[in-house]
Design goal:
Shape: elongated
Radius of gyration: 16 Å
Largest sheet: 2 strands, antiparallel
Number of strands: 2
Number of helices: 4
Strand order of the largest sheet: 1-2
Order of helices and strands: EEHHHH
């Protein structure tokens, strides 16, 4: 990839494509969700659903949440 700015989906050049900038904070998001999930009583945890506002957040929880036992939930 060149060091030049690239156009985004809004066609404005950005130094860092939104695909990469949107990933900022993903490990922390997964850790926070895992903390809330683990704090639930076992009965509630068994019925819990993790909802994400967008595919980026869902991917973050899916990918980084594995280390916290969130995979396959």
């Amino acid at each position: 990839m060149s060091s030049e700015a690239v156009a985004t989906e809004h066609e404005r050049p950005q130094p860092l494509p939104s695909d990469f900038s949107d990933m900022h904070g993903w490990p922390a998001l997964a850790a926070q969700v895992a903390g809330v999930y683990q704090s639930l009583p076992p009965g509630e945890r068994a019925q819990a659903v993790i909802y994400a506002e967008n595919y980026g957040e869902a991917a973050a929880i899916d990918f980084f949440g594995r280390q916290y036992g969130l995979a396959g939930r």
